[in-house]
Amino acid sequence: MHLKSAVIAAVLALSSALAGCSITGGPMQMFTNDYGARVDAGYQLPAIPIYKVDRKYQRQVVRYDTTEVPGTIIVDPQQKFLYFVMPDGKAMRYGIGVGREGFEWKGNARVALKREWPRWTPPREMIQRQPELTKYANGMDPGLSNPLGARALYLFNKGGDTGYRLHGTPEWNSIGKAMSSGCIRLMNQDIIDLYNRAEVGAKVIVL
Questions:
Q1: Beta strand ranges found along 51-202 (DSSP E)
Q2: Are 126 and 163 in contact (CB under 8 A)?
Q3: Catalytic residues
Q4: Among the listed residues 8, 48, 68, the one whose alpha carbon sits nearest the alpha carbon of residue 193
Q5: What is the CATH number of the domain that holds 109?
Q6: Is 72 a member of any domain?
Q7: How many domains does one find in the chain?
Q8: Which residues form the L,D-TPase catalytic domain (predicted)?
Q9: pLDDT tens digits, the chain, 207 residues: what are they?
């Protein structure tokens, strides 16, 4: 009996190691009441009907054991979660929307720039796919309908600008889905929270 227990313990330990030493549990703290309307930089940010958003995609503190230092951002596209690593084996977890099939990406980057209510300039390739976006070739003004939402974190690697962003979205119902052109989107209230936590230079890992 003791031998069987020892074998089970060994298997569980190995499984944890193979999982990249990241273990999550139930929520330690929920922020369900933080999705109300607010005025932000002069913009009237509407409330999100958070009761329509799956509870697992609502902002929450969870257990998260990792060797990465606090301040690191880890994106799990498969589970549709973004983790902001905190001290003491914790992380702030946000629900995200990710790139649809053919637009996925993975790798390491760093937050090179942070912008509040950024302008959005569609990439040339996107304009070719969607000619109706030509009118925004020189950029779309910030606002409630801007695809980048209330905040954007610009990701660079050794090759320079990756073209990918962590950004807000007015389309709260896209969280938990794969429908973007590769960028990682969060609800506007969540990207504001992440923006206030993340530092320029922060490491970003997309699994």
A1: 60-64, 73-76, 81-86, 90-95, 98-99, 107-116, 151-157, 160-169, 178-180, 184-187
A2: no
A3: 167, 183
A4: 48
A5: 2.40.440.10
A6: yes
A7: 1
A8: 71-207
A9: 444 444 434 433 433 333 344 545 578 999 999 999 999 999 999 999 999 999 999 999 999 999 999 999 999 999 999 999 999 999 999 999 997 654 567 899 999 999 999 997 776 777 677 776 665 656 678 999 898 999 999 999 999 999 899 999 999 999 999 876 668 999 999 999 999 999 999 999 999
Q: How many helices (H) and strands (E) does the chain have?
A: 3, 14
| Residue whose tokens read 């929920």 | 30
Name which of 158, 159, 185 is nearest 171 in CA terms: 185
Q: Is residue 115 assigned to a domain?
A: yes
Domain assignment present for 14: no
Residue-number span of the structural domain to which 53 is assigned: 24-206
Residue whose pair of structure tokens reads 């954007």 in the numeric block? 152
Distances (CA, A) of 180 to 9, 38, 108, 126, 164: 41, 26, 19, 11, 11
And the tokens for 206? 């997309």
- 100-104 CB contacts, 8 Å cutoff, 24+ apart: 100/178, 100/179, 100/180, 100/181, 101/178, 103/180, 103/181, 103/182, 104/77, 104/178, 104/182
